[in-house]
Amino acid sequence: MTLKELFDRCDFTDIATNLKRFNPEQAATMTRFKEAFDTLRNLEPKLDTEYSCYQAIELSKSYYDEFEKEEGGCDYYISVSCGGDYWVSDLAKEIILADELTLTDSEIAAHCLWEMTFYGNPYNDDEFAKTSLRIIGEIDTSNPYAVAAEKLSQKQTDNYLPKQFKEYRGKDALPLEVWDLIWRRRKNRSKRKRDYRQDKRIKTLEHMAIIEDIIQRLTAKTESFSRAELKYLFNAKLISERRYRSRSYDVGRRIDYLVDLITNYESNNFSDYTHFLLMFRTSSDYPLDQRELEVLQNLFSHRLPASANIRYGYGCDEKLETEVGILLICS
Questions:
Q1: What is the CATH number of the domain that holds 313?
Q2: E strands along 48-149, which residues?
Q3: 68-88 residue pLDDT tens
Q4: Which domain holds residue 73?
C-alpha cells in the first residue's frame, strides 16, 4: 500500500485524534494539519527514483538513549523514514511496517503526516517558507527589524571571536573549534552587562520583526488597511496571528470547507483579545460573492468574543486560484 492509498482510505477526524494523543499540544495546530492532509490528497504521486532519500516509507521502533528517556514515559518512539523528499514522491512510496509494530491505518497516517509537515505546515505555504529561511539566517531585507536583529546577533558573536580568526567576522558558518573557543572565553562583569543589554535589544527587535511581517501581510495588494493605521500593533501587549486557507479544489465547496475547518479544528481561545483584523483574500477571477461574505462574517462573529472589535479587509492573491485565504490578527 502506498502513502497516497493510505491517505485516501483514512478520515482526517481519526488522524487528528491520534495526533492529539501523541502530543496534546498539537491541538492548537490542527487546522494546519487538516490543510496539509487535504493538499496531499489532491496531489498526483510521482516517485523520484534518482534523487529520493528513501524508496519506501518505513515505520519502526527507535529507542531513546539514557539522556532522552522521559521519566515514566515510553522507552521508544516510532521512527518514520519519509522526511526530506518532495510530497509527490512520498505519496508514491510503499509503506513498510516493522514486524514489532501493531498500528491502525489512522495511526500510521498520523505518524507520516507529522513527519512530512512539522506541525502541519503545508509545503507550498509562502509565509512558512519565509520564516524557515529566517531561522537559518537568510533574512528578508524588506523587514528592517529582522535585519537589525540579525546584525546585532552577529555582533555578539564577533565580540568573542579570537583575533587569529578575524577572517570569520560577520559569518554565520564557523568551524566547531572556533565556536568552542567563543563559548569558553571568560566574561567579566562589564561584558555580561553588555550581553544582557544586547540580548534584550535583540528580543525587542525580533518582536518588532514579527509585527512588521504582519503589517506587510495585511497591506499587500489591498486598500482595506494602510500602514499608518496599523502602527498601533507595535504597542500591542498581546498579539496573535492565525492563517486559514480552503483546500477544497472546488469553488462551490470552498466556504463549506472553511466553516468545517474553523468550527471543528480550531481550538484556540480568543477571549484574551479585544481587537481583531480579518483579511479575506481571493484571486481576481474568483472573488467572494455576497452570500460567501455573509457566511464568513457570521462564522467569526460567533467564534470571537461577543464584545470583540472586528474590522474586515479584502484583498487579492492570484496564487489562491479558486480558493480563499484568511488572515486573522488578534490584539
A1: 3.30.1330.20
A2: 56-63, 76-80, 94-97
A3: 555 555 667 788 887 667 889
A4: 3-121
CB half-sphere exposure, 230, CA atoms < 13 A: 24
* SS3 call for 249: coil
- Looking at the whole model, is its pTM more than 0.90? no
| Secondary structure string (H, E, C) spanning 17-30 | HHHHHHCHHHHHHH
| Confidence (pLDDT) at 10 | 96
Residue 169 has pLDDT above 90, yes or no: no
Burial of 29-46, coded b for 16+ CB within 10 Å and e otherwise, reads bbbbbbbbbbbbeebebe
Average pLDDT over the chain reads 86
- Same domain? For 17 and 41 the reply is yes
Same domain for 161 and 136: yes
CA distances from 201 to 171, 194, 198, 208, 211 (A): 21, 11, 5, 11, 15
Residue-wise over 1-14: b if at least 16 C-beta within 10 A, else e?
Answer: ebbbebbeebebee
In a domain, 226, yes or no: no
For the chain, how many helices (H) and strands (E)?
Answer: 12, 7
Domain final residue, candidates 188, 219, 250: 219
The answer for residues whose C-beta is within 8 angstroms of residue 302's C-beta and 6 or more apart is none
Give per-residue pLDDT as tens, 277-304. 999 999 999 999 999 999 999 999 999 9
∠ Cα 164 169 171 (to 5°): 125
